[in-house]
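thread: overnight batch results

M.L. [08:02]
morning all. the overnight job finished for the chain we discussed friday. pasting input first so we're all looking at the same thing
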Amino acid sequence: MKKAICLLFFIGACSKFDPTISGLVSLGGTSALERLAGQPNVVCYLILKDQWGVPVASKRWLNPKFPIHFALTKTDLLLPTRPWEGPYQLEAYLFLSLDPNHELPPPPGAAIAIFDKPISPGNSALELVLHK
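M.L. [08:03]
and the structure it wrote out:
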């Protein structure tokens, strides 16, 4: 029993030292985006994709306050057994959610931000600026 508890503690402690991908999502400064962000049921998604464009991790904020500070870790992976390695692509979307069960892919006309370089765990101070 003690060995099992120690092993669980060790695994939990190791996961705390996994490198993160962190940064900021902000609005592009247009009044249309500010109006959109101020409406109820607005959703912001942050999506991490692999080199083939397949989503591997995501974060979702309902009625977010900008700027959004984010940190993606290994615990955000959609498949927990997937290696936490890059290179990855990072995208953010902002749109009005009409049906929480069918939000992805984002609707046409969603505000979008795409980080212009491949990233890997350990990258920080990334900035995504949403534009329509």
